[in-house]
Design a protein that fits this description.
3 helices, mainly alpha, about 85% helix
């Protein structure tokens, strides 16, 4: 049974969404905590929030990118996606201790951007492939 492009596209869309949430969390959290200090006591203010997001991003990215690359055969998309994941994992597990808070934020934004771009490219390649065969 072949995987439909809509399913690959859905995984790509969810992965882009979770990467965007990760990036927004990273950018906005310091400002939001300044305005609403009680948020720092919630799960949103916890450093473990990045780890929880990884539990969503990693399987969605692996599924969407590997299925898409199986269809369109552009392995550069897969490599870029896994490089973005590597940046996110680095930032989540070793960011503060290795590169400090600003470095962690920069690496997280870089990783989330790379993943999002890889999924957008994956989505477009799959859509173009379907359009060319109809």
């Amino acid at each position: 049974m072949a995987i439909k492009t809509e399913h690959i596209g859905l995984a790509d869309k969810f992965a882009v969404s979770t990467s965007t949430i990760c990036a927004l969390h990273c950018i906005a959290l310091p400002f939001v905590i300044g305005v609403f200090p009680a948020i720092s006591a919630s799960f949103l203010g916890d450093e473990a929030f990045h780890v929880w997001l990884l539990w969503a991003v990693i399987p969605l990215s692996a599924l969407g990118l590997s299925l898409g690359c199986g269809k369109h055969k552009n392995n550069a998309v897969l490599i870029a996606g896994f490089a973005g994941l590597a940046f996110l994992v680095l930032a989540a597990f070793a960011g503060h201790s290795l590169i400090g808070e600003n470095g962690e934020r920069a690496v997280t934004l870089l990783g989330a951007s790379i993943i999002a771009l890889a999924h957008i490219r994956n989505y477009r390649l799959c859509r173009n492939l379907d359009c060319n065969h109809q």
